[in-house]
Amino acid sequence: MSDDKNTNNNSIYNLLSKEERYKKGINQDSIVDLVDSFLFKAIKYAASDIHLEQTQNDMRIRYRIDGILYDQKSISKDQGLAVISRIKILSSLDIAEKRIPQDGKFLVKVNNSSKNHLIDVRVSTFPSINGEKIVLRILDKEQNCIELNKLGMSNKTLQDIYSIIDRPQGFFLVTGPTGSGKTTTLYSILSYLNNTEKNIITMEDPVEYNIEGITQSQINEKAGFTFAKGLRSILRQDPDIVMVGEIRDKLTAQTAIEAALTGHLVLSTLHTNDSIGAVSRLIEMGVEPFLINSSLSGVLAQRLVRKLCSECKQEDLITLQEKEHLKNKGFDTDKFNLEKIYRPYGCNKCFDLGYKSRTGIFELLKIDDELRDLIIKKSSAQKIKEYAIKNNLNFIINDGIEKIDQGIISFEELFKSINL
Fold first, then answer.
1. How far is C-alpha 287 from the chain's CA centre?
2. What are phi and psi of 55, to 5 degrees?
3. What pairs with residue 12 in β-bridges?
4. CA-based diameter of the chain, in Å?
5. What is the percentage of the chain residues whose pLDDT exceeds 90?
6. Quick one: DSSP state of residue 304?
7. Which residues 6+ apart lie within 8 Å of 37 measured at CB?
8. Cα–Cα distance between 181 and 188 in angstroms, integer?
9. d(Cα 157, Cα 140) in Å, to the nearest integer?
10. On the CB side of 323, how many CA atoms lie within 13 Å of its CA?
C-alpha cells in the first residue's frame, strides 16, 4: 500500500502513480488504488471538488470542473462503502459514525513528472437516505495566487482598483454569490499589497491558501472566535491591512468600518448580486449611512465564467433570437457591433468540454462625493443605479459582452452566470 501510516490531519499521504508503485514493489489493494485514481484524475482535470454520492444501487461519482459537475463512471455500492471508509481513515474521521455530518482533511503529496507538491484535501460527509455522501474539496497549497492583473479585469477597472487599494485606509468590498471567485480576488489583492513594510492580518473561514509574509487565522465559532470578536483582537496587533473573510452581521460590519476609519485598509466580501446592492445591504444590516459614507471606498461585483477553449472554439454568427434576448434585457447590441461570436466545440486539450479554465466578469462602483450624498439620504438602489448609469458604470453584463466580442467566453455562458 502507499506510505500513509500514522495518517492524521498533520501527516502527508504520499500519492504515487501506478508506475512509481510498480517500481517500489508496492502491491495496493483495489480500494486504495481506486481512491488514488479518483485523486489523480481530479488533479489532472484541475477539478475543484469530487462528489461521491450513494444511490440505491451504486455510488455516483462527479467532478466539479470550472464550476460545472460532470458524471464519471459509477462504482458498486460495496466498493462505495469501502471507499468511504478509506477516505475517513485518511482524514481522521470516525468510521463508525454515519448519522451526523463530519469534517476532516488530509494532505496529499503528488509525485510525478508534472507535479511534485502538496495538495490539501478537505473532506465533508453528509448523511442521506441512501447512505453517506462525501465531498472532497481539492486545494493546491503551493499554487501561487493569481496575479490581480490576470483575473480578467479591463485595464480601466484594474487601474481604478489600484487607485483604491494603494490608499493607506478605506473599506473595500468584493461582492457576488457563492463560488464567484471573491476569495481569489482578495488573495490577489493581498499578494499585490504584501511587502515587509506592512503588517497584513486575515480572518478566514476557512484559510484556503497560505501566503508567505501574511498572518492568516481561521475563525472557530464553536470556540467563540468569530469574525466580529477576532477583528477587535486584530486591531490590537498593529495591522496596516486587514482582510475579513465575510461581512455576516451588523457587528462585524461596524467593527470593520471602525477599523477603516482609524487608519487601516480593510478588505472583505459580501453576498449581493451587484455592486449597488452592497450599499443597500449594509444599510439593511443597520449600519448608519454616515459610517458607510466615511469609510467605503469601492465595491467590486463579480462572477466566474468558463473560458472557451482557444484550441477548438468555432466562429459563428449571432442569431436574431440572441440579439432579441439582449435587447429585451436592455442591452444595446449596436454598441459593440456584435455580429460574430464564438461557440464551444470540444477537443483533447479541453477533455471534449469546449471550455478550459475560467475568467472573471466585473463591475466596479467607486464611491465619490455625489454618491455619498445619495447614501446619506438613504436613497433607493434604483436611484443609485440611475446615478451609476449617468456616470457610465461598466455594468457586469457589459463586461461580459465585451468578453464575448473578444472571443473569450460564449453567449450561453454569460447568461447562465448572471441568470438572464
1. 27
2. -110, -175
3. 107
4. 74
5. 63
6. E
7. none
8. 11
9. 28
10. 13
Do residues 92 and 104 touch, judged by C-beta distance below 8 A? yes
Contact in structure between 204 and 267 (CB atoms under 8 Å)? no
3-class secondary-structure state, position 49: strand
Residues 108-152 have pLDDT tens digits of: 887 655 556 788 899 999 999 999 999 999 987 655 567 999 999
The CA distance from 269 to 215, in Å, is 19
Per the CB < 8 A criterion, the answer to whether 12 and 107 are in contact is: yes
- Taking each helix axis from N to C terminus, what angle separates 250-261 and 227-234, rounded to the nearest 10 degrees? 20
**Nine-digit cell at 353?**
468540454
Query: pTM score, two decimals?
Result: 0.85
Neighbour tally for 381: CB within 10 Å: 16
Q: What is the DSSP string of 114-132?
A: S--SEEEEEEEEE--TTS-
Query: What is the distance, to the nearest Å, from the Cα of residue 345 to the centroid of all Cα atoms in its chain?
Result: 26
CA distance 265 to 297: 10
Could you give the residue ranges of the DSSP H alpha helices within 194-302? 227-234, 250-261, 275-284, 289-295
Give 359's strand partners.
305
Please, are residues 335 and 126 in contact by the beta-carbon 8 Å criterion? no
Contact 117, 109 (CB under 8 A): yes
* Closest C-alpha to 259, from 270, 271, 274, 247: 247
CA distances from 401 to 16, 116, 157, 297, 328 (A): 44, 39, 15, 27, 15
DSSP characters for 386-406?
Answer: HHHHHTT---HHHHHHHHHHT
Please give the residue that has the higher pLDDT: either 4 or 211: 211
Q: How high does pLDDT run on average in the chain?
A: 88
Instruction: Report pLDDT digits (tens) over 318-368.
Output: 888 888 877 777 676 666 677 789 999 999 989 899 999 999 999 999 999
The CA distance from 356 to 350, in Å, is 6
143-150: long-range contacts, CB 8 A cutoff, minimum separation 24: 143/209, 145/184, 145/187, 145/188, 145/190, 145/191, 145/209, 145/211, 146/184, 146/187, 146/188, 147/188, 147/191, 147/192, 148/185, 148/188, 148/189, 148/191, 148/192
Q: Return the amino acid letter for 55.
A: T
